[in-house]
Design brief:
- The protein has 782 residues and is an alpha+beta fold.
- Helix content is 19%, strand content 36%.
- It has 14 helices and 30 strands.
- The chain has a 17-stranded antiparallel β-sheet that branches.
- A hairpin with a 2-residue loop joins β2 and β3.
- The two termini are 39 Å apart.
- Its main location: membrane.
- It is found in: Membrane.
- Keywords: Cell outer membrane, Membrane, Signal, Transmembrane.
- This is BamA/TamA family outer membrane protein.
Length: 782
């Protein structure tokens, strides 16, 4: 222990000396008289502001100052050092050019700082926040060829709102403004704030847009601040229309005609095939429920547009229906470009026509995909997919997708008992842009609800072990409440798994092992499934959140009706196959925190449980939980971890089958991500978790086939932990990910001896071979 302490002390001493050398060495490249700019600090002198108010104002002011000093990491400036230490490249390419001009940063000098300009920024920002009598000054502090600028602000008293007025008149637009004033953002007693004033003008504009004032603009509103009518740093706010507001902006418009061009392209428009504004005599269109459709070839059924568009003839224009219509047309998935125009048709009665100009995508596409993959589980593989898509299958924007695929994973090393795997299959899906049901479903969402029908088949051959034929079919609905909330309900979700060609080798392996026996059992699984997704990850926020919950209820009604109870010997069959009965729930929670534009923290927590009952004593193998692999606990090979403290190394009859499954799953992941250079990203991560069984599994001899696998009060001691580093190459169209991980805690070691931090030996080839796991994958793990 003493030797280790000495090593650590030496390491930190060397690190400290190295950091000091790098830090100081940047200044030696400066010319005489030059000073390296290390940043600015704003000091606030005020007795009237609280500590919290001072801190908020100081942070905002420092954020607005320019230029920013050279970037630093742990007090060092490696990018500046790379620029200084690298000689001038002879060509605009190569490692020297990359180090100096791509990775490196040119030094930011004190001479680059316009201190008077920054002082004005401080004063102006303070005045915009209600400090009307703000005064600022600056001073420069230099030492060892480095300089910092100290700005001192005396903000004076902050002006508060004493009263808010909305002068009234008889105009229609003003009457609507009077209604909107009840929810004003300008509150008596709040500080004067220019950002709040801008938000108030935008709020009024949004409200008027929803009342038919299409040509209104936030700039038509003026907010006057009068400090002469009040005392003690108070100001009265007056919100009114500008005197020069255009007449058109004050008029409320209604919809006259709704015209749709569903097969519009620029080439035909240039030839004069279509005319806007519309001349109905020259167009080959037709009326459908007050919508005029210009579709001479009748490629689309008109009810598609009747369901998507929210405007009807005579409606008062509002922005909500405007945006809903555009978003629903886009979400149909058949149009490449969606454009909307409003053209005045009757200025006297304030009417305009609504034109929807739609350019279709290619209605059919055929795509061939070839994917290669390899991992540390000693397998290399490839997959070939042929996909055909028809985006207007029945002329109602239905999307039909069909695919055939083949894949193989071949052993390239490792245990002699490992098996090669071959898969082939076909899938077909029809997606209808509406709810097909015996009841009426009305949606005011910007996203078109869909009815999905899927059929699929897969053939899987584990070479010398067994073959599985899997058939599946689903019928269900998918709809989004808004951009954050999405639901998917499969009313019918059926899977039938039929084993074939079981070899004598596998028959011998599974003798006395109920777990292996269930892999090749005939399985009939049917019942509803439901998932709910809530996500804010698409929003430009510092902190974002993702949640997906899934509920799978198999054979519940059938089991209730038939009185199935396998424990009482009442196992029920359908077409000679016992149907599965269970309840399964899984929750996936993710949190993302952005430190800067180039660094972030991503975390994930997964918790799931599956409970068999009624007609089933165990969860079907295909519906159990698995951990390990490139998108899970990366320090352990895919599907080799668990259940619990079960040690797969000592089980002779499981060496040929890597997959370990469980009924309970807990997993926690944390990953720090940073961008080094354009497409090059790095990560450091920690993964933890495991799977467990609800019930122990015993063979005919009464032996527990997976000892330690049952979930118990000691589950925390059976959590596996791994850590590693990753390299991600972001090529826009795909992200190639390489993660190198090693175990820190192994749950199947003896209790009290599961942490392996003291056994890490990077210098030994045998240790690296057994403990370093390389995962190669496409995309982020979460």
């Amino acid at each position: 222990m003493k030797n280790k302490l000495n090593i650590y002390c030496k390491y930190f001493l060397v690190s400290g000396i190295t950091a000091t050398i790098i830090s100081c060495s940047n200044t030696k490249f400066l010319k005489d008289g030059q000073l390296l700019y290390t940043g600015a600090e704003v000091k606030i002198e005020s007795d009237s502001l609280t500590k919290k108010e001072k801190s908020a104002l100081q942070s905002a002011l420092e954020e607005n100052l320019t230029p920013k000093p050279n970037s630093s990491f742990l007090g060092l400036r490696p990018k500046l050092y790379a620029y200084n230490a690298t000689k001038e490249p002879k060509k605009e390419k190569g490692i020297r050019y990359w180090l100096k001009y791509k990775f490196g940063e040119e030094p930011v000098l004190l001479g680059d700082v316009d201190r008077e300009f920054n002082k004005d920024i401080i004063v102006n920002y303070s005045e915009n926040k209600g400090y009307f009598n703000a005064k600022a000054k600056y001073d420069t502090v230099s030492k060892n060829k480095k300089a910092q600028v100290i700005y001192t602000l005396n903000p004076g008293g902050r002006y508060l709102i004493s009263n808010v007025k909305f002068p009234a008149d008889s105009s229609l637009v003003n009457q609507e403004i009077q209604i909107l004033k009840e929810k004003t953002l300008l509150k008596t007693g709040n500080p004067f704030d220019l950002d709040v004033i801008k938000a108030e003008r935008q709020r009024i504009d949004d409200g008027l847009k929803d009342k038919g004032f299409y040509y209104f603009n936030p700039d038509n509103i003026i907010v006057q601040a009068d400090s002469t009518v009040s005392k003690n740093h108070q100001v009265e706010m007056i919100v009114k229309l500008k005197d020069n507001t255009p007449k058109l902006a004050k008029e409320q418009f209604t919809i006259d005609k709704v015209v749709v061009f569903p097969n519009y392209n620029l080439r035909d428009a240039k030839r004069g095939k279509y005319s806007i504004p519309m001349n109905q005599d020259s167009l080959k269109g037709y009326e459908y429920n007050d919508i005029y459709v210009v579709d001479p070839d009748k490629k689309f059924k008109p009810r598609v547009f009747d369901r998507a568009l929210y405007f009807d003839k005579g409606d008062v224009y509002n922005r909500k229906d405007h945006n809903l219509s555009l978003n629903r047309l886009i979400s149909l998935g058949v149009f490449k470009f969606v454009k909307n125009e409003f053209i005045v048709s009757d200025s006297l009665n304030h009417k305009f026509d609504a034109y929807y100009i739609l350019t279709p995508r290619e209605l059919q596409s055929l795509r061939l995909e070839a994917l290669g993959r390899t991992n540390s589980a000693n397998y290399a593989g490839s997959e070939l997919n042929l996909n055909w898509t028809q985006r207007n299958f029945f002329r109602g924007a239905e999307q039909f997708k069909a695919s055939v695929y083949g894949a193989f994973d071949v052993q390239i090393g490792g245990p002699a008992e490992a098996e090669n795997i071959f898969r082939a299959g076909a899938n077909a899906q029809l997606s209808i842009p509406r709810i097909v049901a015996p009841f009426r479903f009305n949606s005011s969402s910007a996203f078109v609800p869909r009815t999905n029908i899927k059929l699929g088949y897969e053939f899987q051959n584990r070479t010398t072990l067994y073959t599985l034929n899997t058939f599946n079919a689903t019928f269900g609905y998918q709809w989004k409440e808004n951009v954050r909330k999405e639901h998917e309900l499969n009313v019918i979700d059926v899977s039938y798994i039929d084993p074939a060609n079981e070899t004598p080798k596998f028959a011998a392996l599974k003798q006395g092992n109920p777990y292996l026996q269930r892999i090749t059992d005939q399985q009939l699984i049917f019942g509803p499934t439901y998932s709910y997704t809530y996500s804010t990850t698409m929003l430009p926020k510092k902190n974002t959140f993702y949640y997906k919950g899934m509920l799978d209820l198999a054979g519940n009604i059938t089991g209730l009706v038939t009185g199935a109870n396998v424990k009482e010997g009442k196992e029920k069959n359908i077409f000679g196959v016992p149907f599965s009965q269970y309840a399964k729930i899984e929750n996936d929670v993710r949190f993302y925190h952005k430190f800067t534009e180039k660094t972030s923290l991503a975390t994930r927590f997964i918790a799931g449980v599956a409970l068999p009952y009624g007609n089933s004593e165990h969860i079907p193998f295909s519906r159990q939980f698995f951990v390990g692999g490139s998108n899970s606990i990366r320090a352990f090979r895919a599907r080799t971890l668990g259940p619990g403290s079960f040690d797969p190394r000592g089980a002779e009859n499981t060496r040929a089958v890597f997959d370990q499954a469980g009924d309970v799953k807990l997993e926690l992941n944390a990953e720090y991500r940073a961008n080094l250079y354009k497409f090059l990203n790095v990560a450091a991560f920690v993964d933890a978790g495991n799977i467990w069984l609800i019930n122990d599994e015993f063979n005919e001899a009464g032996e527990n086939t997976r000892p330690g696998g049952k979930f118990s009060k000691d589950f925390l001691s059976e959590v596996a932990v791994g850590a590693g580093v990753g390299l991600r190459l972001d090529f826009s169209i795909l992200i190639l990910r390489l993660d190198l991980a090693m175990p820190l805690r192994v749950p199947y070691y003896e209790k009290g001896d599961r942490w392996v931090l003291d056994r890490i030996k990077f210098g030994e080839g045998s240790w690296r071979r057994d403990n370093l796991i390389l995962n190669i994958a496409i995309g982020y793990p979460f």
